[in-house]
């Protein structure tokens, strides 16, 4: 077979190779563009949390029993004051109850919990609609204890029960004062697990006895979109 014939027979291979290269390049560009759009949505959501954090810190500036901080996961509210709960139990002290009522009313005023379609920029809505993203804002309450053993015969039962009941009472106070939806709250008790300090010292134990409230708001993938996305 002549060189010319071989070249003619193999020419389609080069064309096919070019096509595959173009397709791969196209899909890579689509992935990069999509990630860029999702990043825009995430940045916008983060800006809403920044605004909410600024509002909360202003309204809770005089609080002694709760402390606020902005984290990568949202807005953290830490409760570790030694007199936050009735000694040896899970009922809220009157001072903590008062501050939680104040915090609950502050939560109720935050836009992140009442977001409507008209509040979101058009380009963010388009990206969210295209990727089936829905807005979700929630208040997650988690309780923790130190590693001191609890008498099995005690009404407190164990550290899991104690941490869960403390978290539940905090959540109940916030729910009643904020008038947010029940579906926007969650409660977890971790007991002695997930300590933030050593349980070998009195100071460490005090830090581990805490309730943490995490306020989050973001767009997330959803099979069913809320009404304001339709």
Automatic annotation (TrEMBL):
The chain crosses the membrane at residues 12-33. Residues 72-219 form the OmpA-like domain. It comes from the Bacteria. It is a single-pass membrane protein. Keywords: Cell membrane, Membrane, Transmembrane, Transmembrane helix. Its main location: membrane. It is found in: Cell membrane. GO terms for cellular component: plasma membrane. PANTHER family: LIPOPROTEIN YIAD-RELATED (PTHR30329:SF21), STATOR ELEMENT OF FLAGELLAR MOTOR COMPLEX (PTHR30329). This is OmpA/MotB family protein. It comes from Hydrogenovibrio crunogenus (strain DSM 25203 / XCL-2) (Thiomicrospira crunogena).
């Amino acid at each position: 077979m002549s060189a010319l014939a071989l070249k003619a027979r193999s020419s389609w291979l080069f064309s096919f190779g070019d096509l595959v290269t173009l397709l791969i390049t196209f899909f890579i560009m689509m992935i990069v563009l999509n990630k860029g759009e999702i990043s825009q949505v995430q940045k916008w959501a983060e800006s809403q949390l920044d605004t909410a954090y600024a509002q909360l810190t202003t309204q809770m500036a005089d609080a002694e029993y709760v402390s606020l901080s902005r984290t990568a996961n949202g807005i953290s509210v830490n409760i570790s004051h030694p007199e936050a709960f009735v000694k040896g139990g899970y009922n809220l002290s009157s001072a903590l109850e008062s501050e939680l009522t104040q915090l609950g009313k502050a939560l109720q005023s935050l836009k992140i919990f009442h977001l409507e379609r008209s509040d979101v920029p058009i380009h963010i809505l388009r990206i969210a609609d295209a990727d089936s993203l829905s807005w979700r804002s929630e208040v997650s309450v988690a309780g923790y204890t130190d590693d001191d053993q609890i008498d099995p015969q005690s009404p407190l039962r164990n550290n899991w029960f104690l941490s869960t009941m403390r978290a539940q009472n905090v959540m109940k106070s916030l729910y009643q004062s904020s008038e947010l939806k029940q579906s926007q709250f969650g409660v977890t008790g971790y007991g002695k697990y997930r300590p933030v300090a050593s349980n070998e010292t009195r100071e460490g134990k005090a830090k581990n006895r805490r309730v943490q409230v995490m306020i989050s708001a973001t767009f997330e993938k959803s099979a069913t979109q809320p009404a304001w996305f339709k």
